[in-house]
Specification:
- There is one protein chain.
- The protein is an alpha/beta fold.
- It folds into 2 domains: 274 residues, 3-Layer(aba) Sandwich (Aldehyde Dehydrogenase, Chain A, domain 1); 190 residues, Aldehyde Dehydrogenase, Chain A, domain 2 (3-Layer(aba) Sandwich), CATH 3.40.309.10.
- It is built from 15 helices and 24 strands.
- The strands form 7 sheets. A 7-stranded mixed beta sheet has the order 14-17-18-13-12-20-21, with helices on both faces. Strands 9-8-7-10-11-23 form a 6-stranded mixed beta sheet, sandwiched between helices.
- A hairpin with a 7-residue loop joins strand 15 and strand 16.
- The longest helix is centred in the N-terminal third of the chain and has 20 residues.
- The N and C termini lie far apart (71 Å).
- Bound molecules: nicotinamide-adenine-dinucleotide (NAD).
- Nicotinamide-adenine-dinucleotide binds next to helix 7 and helix 8.
- It comes from Marinobacterium aestuariivivens.
- Keywords: Oxidoreductase.
């Protein structure tokens, strides 16, 4: 897709409740374009009263519309139509996504949108697949479990892939017959509104998918604590995930799904078939979206005999990237979401260097002369398990390098004390690959690749403090259902 002029895109700054845009809220937040720092909209913050209005509206829609009761294939048909509308809306939706987020227009149009639409189609296909089970009881009883929707599910999502993450929440929730009230990130609030508008156009009853805008402390917290919310599904940082879990417990125990942060290793053995291909895979895993990806492969663990050569290749590949605004089609290195986030990233890099780490390449911001926040793809060597760059999620284009002699050392280094979201293993030895796949404590292990494919059937989610439960796959669909047990006694 071509580039676009950001000043020609207008946004509707509102909430979306009951099938229409709703103004109102306690105050406003400035929303900036990460590519040039321009303040392009003021976002209304939904207070507890407005959140209450959105949840009540969704509850009414859940109870009074046919959404939960209609033939599941009818729900599926509407969801498929929604997916088609999203895909067909590329000229509006892709620039809207690119404008305020870090997603370059080419990626937003060529990947995010089709991935969002196909994810919704994937869940539409589940709508009539899981209804429950018949239990093996004595012959004069009939026991069954009936799968039922929860009611209204509250969703809170981050800024890094606004449309895609929303589809992972709303797709399975709606396919299973639930209603949803979703709060996007206050940094990327607008594309999701358009998505909600298209849902109504596709035939999703008004109120089944409501969107409330605002910050986490006011709007997000009020949503998670609302008694009308039956379950909360969250994607974001581990710290916020813990706060949400506490809020859910304090407000009367609710089920939670938490997709949280990561510090994922990429383990490279000297026997890889194609060193160049592996180097490109490793580089992509830390520079896609400028490393602002939950599963970013931020810890390279490479066999000593090829380490220097491999780091050299990585540096050369990093140098090929072209930083630029998200509205320029040639951009291959996107901005950091905000200058504050960029300073945080740089702080971790500089403190690690002060602790003895060595900056081999990168290590500072890139000035584009336009107020945008960009950071050089960075390689840190001479690091150990106690340094900040190894311990903490950086969420930027920064990769640390540790070396090993043998498999046992590789496995020990791959293990992280806190996180367990994903891992990559690169080797020509299938036995070794499978030993590591078993051995590494992570929710996903990729062998000789890194990153998700369009296989929506494979779930994603973390071990340890990287999360609870799964997005994607059958698991995410089932997580949007609760089970009722029914026992019929027809004995004489
Ligand atoms: P964040 O935790 O700061 O914010 C995420 C969302 O939570 C935002 O909408 C925010 O407004 C809201 N929020 C903040 N405090 C809240 C509170 N007390 N109550 C309710 N809501 C609150 O995360 P972020 O900076 O937007 O996103 C980056 C993080 O998300 C990284 O840690 C990344 O790893 C993680 N992430 C994880 C996955 C995954 O699938 N595991 C995917 C994408 C991002």
């Amino acid at each position: 897709m071509q580039g676009f002029d950001p000043d020609r895109i207008s946004v509707r700054s509102a909430h979306f409740i009951g099938g229409r845009y709703v103004e109102g809220g306690s105050n406003t937040i400035d929303v900036k374009r990460p590519s040039d720092g321009v303040n392009y909209a003021g976002l209304p913050v939904a207070d507890a009263d407005l959140v209450d209005q959105a949840v009540q509206d969704s509850r009414n829609a859940f109870k009074n519309s046919d959404w939960a009761r209609c033939a599941p294939r009818e729900r599926a048909r509407i969801l498929r139509r929604w997916a088609d509308l999203i895909e067909a809306d590329v000229k509006t939706l892709a620039p809207l996504e690119a404008l305020g987020s870090t997603r370059p227009i080419r990626d937003a149009a060529g990947w995010d949108l089709p991935f969002t639409a196909e994810g919704i189609r994937f869940y539409a296909e589940w709508a009539d697949k899981i209804g429950g089970e018949v239990a093996s009881t004595r012959a004069d009883h009939l026991g069954m479990t009936i799968a039922e929707p929860y009611g209204v599910i509250g969703a809170v999502v981050p800024w890094n892939f606004p449309l895609v993450t929303t589809s992972w929440k709303v797709g399975p929730a709606l396919a299973a017959g639930n209603a949803m009230v979703l709060k996007p990130s206050e940094m990327t609030p607008f594309s999701v509104l358009r998505m909600a508008e298209l849902a109504v156009e596709a035939g999703v009853p008004k109120g089944i998918f409501n969107v409330v805008q605002g910050d986490g402390r006011t709007t997000g917290d009020a949503l998670c604590r609302h008694p009308g919310i039956a379950k909360v599904t969250f994607t974001g940082s581990t710290r916020t995930g813990a706060a949400i879990m506490a809020a859910c417990a304090e407000s009367g125990t609710k089920a939670v799904t938490l997709e949280l942060g990561g510090k994922s290793p990429q383990v490279v053995f000297a026997d890889v078939h194609d060193l160049e291909k592996t180097a490109r895979t490793v580089a992509r895993a830390i520079t896609t979206n400028a490393g602002q990806v939950c599963v970013a492969g931020s810890r390279l663990i490479v066999q000593k005999s090829i380490a220097d050569q491999f780091v050299e290749r990585l540096s050369a590949i990093f140098a090929e990237l072209k930083p630029g605004s998200t509205w320029e089609p040639e951009t291959t290195l996107c901005p950091i979401i905000s200058s504050r986030e960029m300073e945080r990233i740089d702080g971790i890099v500089q403190r690690t260097a002060a602790q003895g780490g060595r900056i081999v390449t990168g290590g500072q911001g890139i000035s584009m002369g336009n107020g945008g926040a960009f950071y050089q793809p960075t390689i840190l060597t001479d690091v150990d398990q106690h340094m900040e760059a190894i311990r903490n999620e950086i969420f930027g284009p920064v990769i640390s390098v540790q070396t090993f002699d043998d498999e046992a050392q590789a496995l020990a280094l791959a293990d992280h004390p806190d996180y367990g979201l994903a891992a990559g293993v690169h080797t020509a030895d299938i036995g070794r690959a499978l030993r590591l796949a078993r051995g590494i404590e992570a929710g996903t292990v990729w062998i000789n690749r890194y990153g998700r494919t369009a296989d929506f059937v494979i779930p994603t989610g973390g071990y340890k403090r990287s999360g609870i439960g799964k997005d994607l796959g059958r698991q995410a669909y089932e997580a949007n259902l609760r089970t009722k047990s029914v026992l019929v006694d027809f004995s004489e």
